[in-house]
Amino acid sequence: MKAPPFEWHRPATLAEAVASLAAVAPQDGRVLAGGQSLLPAMALRVARPPHLVDINGIAELGELRVEDNALRIGALVRHAAFHRPVAHGPLGALMAGVVRHIAHWPIRTRGSFGGSLCHADPASEWPLVAVVLGATMQAVSLRGDRLIDGPAFLRGPLETALAPDEILRAVTLPLLPADAHWGFEEVARRAGDFAQAMALVVLRMDAIGRVAEARIGIGGVEAVPRRLAAVEALVNGRLPSATLVEEAGRAAAAACDPMEDAPYRRALVRAVVSRALASAAMPQALAA
Amino acid sequence: MSEDRSLARRVNCVVNGTAQAAEVSVRRTLADYLRQDLGLTGTHLGCEHGVCGACTVLVDGRAVRSCLMLAVQAEGCAVTTVEGIAPDVVTLHPLQTAFAKHHALQCGFCTPGMLTTLLEFLEEVPAPTAEEIRIVISGNLCRCTGYEPIVAATLEAAAVMRGGA
Ligand SMILES: Cc1cc2nc3c(=O)[nH]c(=O)nc-3n(C[C@H](O)[C@H](O)[C@H](O)COP(=O)(O)OP(=O)(O)OC[C@H]3O[C@@H](n4cnc5c(N)ncnc54)[C@H](O)[C@@H]3O)c2cc1C
Ligand code: FES
Ligand code: FES
């Protein structure tokens, strides 16, 4: 089907975009980024915004750079930009490992990092990365800029902390230390489909090989991605082993509260958390 | 901002090497512009919401879903459709030659999207494995071939394009 009629605004600068969105937000005007979620929703007529503020002409939003020990990702940086590592060390490798699970190649060439966060699909990969790695979102409106952290930004399925007149400008991810180990696992019914369950694990080890700091998050299961404090506490201070991997999976299954298909989703959580922890704890998996 | 508010806009772009200028409704997709305004019906529409891959074209060399891009967003861009892949009217592109040889198409509905997706991929990954090819066409549905001939054709075309065979 075709999208319902709308007026299209194409600002050339961020200042123009902010003004344009402020003018149309009261009538449900929306930002158009990569269009890989919004345009299908309009074609299916589940979204009917009468105005679109197209941000694709704003160069600043496509910038990606490392500054102050963090990766600053302009909201419009496309998923495909992460096919190859964008930063030295574990963070660039982690992003390149995760991006392959997002949709398909010709969707990744247009869909954007910021669009994925603003769309806030519980089964999207980037929101999980944002929560586990401690991302900060920078939003802008006529009232100025404000910073929002990952858990506060993601309010629920398809719901964020952004006001209708706010534009997500950039997302900052702290670089991971060189000795950080990570593992990402996802179950989807077909390649490129949204996840039914996924887990991201980031570990730092102490001098004798015990886990000094674990970050363990799940996505695709609850309304928003979340770190599992109970599972992190279980893993911290322990030596990685098959037993620990098994225990962590079981603890994650118990700690989660699935939106649907609870027994099945818990079984998936157990599997993805165990596998992600196992791959993070084995340094040779880092190359992947 | 007043001319920004209109429901139709002028678009200038280059399609398969030819400059095109037209007034289009802003809600017209790039796919409908190519098919209906320019008569380039080689770009196929299966689902119109991003899932089937049949409508994939190259925009400034990048494979994109033409059903998920507005025609007005192609302003200033170079678009290549299946009609523009071959070097001239009598010669096929090596990827097309390999598709024909390996029976990588039957009804041909998925073929334009397969070719455009694979063309960008082979630029970035000139020596892919069969597994990498399977992954990159995972977003292109083919109801005829069972995919194996497409993978075989792509492996052979990659070798030819590298100058190896
Ligand atoms: C077939 C298919 C499969 C997919 N599979 C996956 C998958 O497996 N995993 C996954 O994560 N995604 C998947 N996607 C979605 C894809 O990743 C989208 O690119 C992403 O969800 C939205 O990004 P976008 O840039 O396309 O945003 P758009 O579609 O342009 O916008 C999405 C929403 O966010 C708002 N928005 C966007 N950018 C901003 C901004 N800077 N400021 C304020 N609001 C903004 C828009 O107003 C809109 O409401 C899939 C899409 C398709 C079509
Ligand atoms: S018609 Fe565009 S992906 Fe199916
Ligand atoms: S050849 Fe018929 S759909 Fe692929």
UniProtKB/TrEMBL annotation, chain A:
Alphabetized UniProt keyword annotations: FAD, Flavoprotein, Oxidoreductase
GO molecular function, one term: oxidoreductase activity
Domain FAD-binding PCMH-type: 1-178
Amino-acid biosynthesis keyword on record: no
UniProt-listed PROSITE patterns: FAD_PCMH (PS51387)
Matching PANTHER family: XANTHINE DEHYDROGENASE SUBUNIT C-RELATED
Name of the protein described by the UniProt record: Carbon-monoxide dehydrogenase medium subunit
Automatic annotation (TrEMBL), chain B:
Keywords, ordered alphabetically: 2Fe-2S, Iron, Iron-sulfur, Metal-binding, Oxidoreductase
A GO MF label: 2 iron, 2 sulfur cluster binding
Keyword Metal-binding carried by entry: yes
Short name of one Pfam family: Fer2_2
InterPro entries linked to this entry: 2Fe-2S-bd, 2Fe-2S-bd_dom_sf, 2Fe-2S_ferredoxin-like_sf, 2Fe-2S_ferredoxin-type, 2Fe2S_fd_BS, Beta-grasp_dom_sf, Diverse_Oxidoreductases
Domain (2Fe-2S ferredoxin-type): residue spans on this chain: 9-85
UniProt KW Amino-acid biosynthesis keyword: no
Name the UniProt record assigns to this protein: Carbon-monoxide dehydrogenase small subunit
Species lineage: Bacteria, Pseudomonadati, Pseudomonadota, Alphaproteobacteria, Acetobacterales
